[in-house]
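DM from R.C. (forwarded with permission)

"hey, sorry to bug you on a friday — could you get me a structure for this? deadline for the figure draft is monday and I only need the backbone to look sensible"
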Amino acid sequence: MMHRGRHVVISTHGSLRALILNGFDRAFAYDFWLSLTFPDVYALTFNDSALAGVRPLWSDGR
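My reply, with the result:
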């Protein structure tokens, strides 16, 4: 992976975020898109180029 051991920040709107995550894991589909809150911040971990985990870092109190 190009940035192994490094932190990368990507900022985007909800629809594109859902599409990007869906490209790594089909579980991030329509229901995930419906559940998005704004703003949202996620930590993604990878094993090589495979998505290994997604952890929400932001809570808006809902």
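R.C.: lifesaver. DSSP finds two helices and two strands in the chain.
me: no worries. Strands lie at 42-47, 50-56.
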